[in-house]
Amino acid sequence: MRFGILVPALTALTLTATGCSAFEGDGADAGDGVQVAAAFYPLAYVAERVAGDHADIELLTQPGTEPHDLELTVKETAVVAGADLVVYQHGFQAAVDKAVEQNATGATVDVEEVVDLLPADAEDDHDHDHADEDEHADDDGHADEDEHADEDEHDHGDVDPHFWLDPVRMADLGDAVADELADLDPDHADDYTANAAAMRDDLTALDEEYVDGLATCERDTIVVSHDAFGYLDKYGVHVAAIAGLSPDAEPTPADLGELHDLIESDGITTVFSERLAPKQLAESLARDAGVTTAVLDPIEGLTSETADEDYLSLMRANLDALRTANGCA
Hints:
Elements: E1 3-5, E2 13-15, E3 34-38, H1 41-51, E4 55-59, H2 74-82, E5 85-88, H3 94-103, E6 107-110, H4 111-114, H5 133-136, H6 167-184, H7 189-213, E7 221-226, E8 238-243, H8 253-266, E9 270-273, H9 280-289, E10 292-295, H10 311-326
Parallel strand pairs: 3-4, 3-5, 5-6, 7-8, 7-9, 9-10
Antiparallel strand pairs: 1-2
Helix pairs in contact: 1-6, 1-7, 2-3, 6-7, 7-10, 8-9
């Protein structure tokens, strides 16, 4: 399966593999099948895989857009209102939450209700010393955000939303979407169940590739742009992030100094940046520390660079990048 970005403007996403209709922004009038609105790319990938050719999938977050920053247009709000099913993640995109609450008339699948999400602070301890931690943390071990409360508009609450970086959790979402589609379209219930099972097979194989590929490495810590990779902890990968769960959270000079010390003490070779987030901080930290940079994609959305990729290929590219950076055998 491939998702293609229409050019010259990144205004639509086309499904080219299994006969699904294109994301053309036409809302509920796009076809005669089940109409599904998916909030951002990983959810659209799951919906497309499970629905096969029995549904039209509308992507609310256009390619090249940082999902956290989404503001829905009138047309996209109409898509939510007219959809038979909305697949979204409560707490991840405030604009979608509001549209679902105020405008959705069909069924919904909320990731937060069907996937076991990690606590937001589950990976706060990266097995390295946090100098002055007591000065920056409250009684629950959360960083003191008073200085940045006005800067960071993206509050994900008590959970880490980036579940899709765990293939098994993606498969769990697929099962929930299949169940909902079967209720909406009983004539094709067996197809939805079979498609979800086939996707789970692919995702289980991907999970095993990560287990095997990261089993024996010289290092187990990575430095990344923002804390989107906590679900890699299941593979023994510890994450030190320049920013918090939201890519626009600003690190302090003390944070950057601590990361510089970590890079030196742990022999870290790479600072990872992203495609949809600014690269300046990662590049500056890498330059100051004398190490290289590489891309580790949080796969929140496609870009012009990844128009011919899909979730599986991007996850495998991430695995290759991790293995290279951490010296995995």
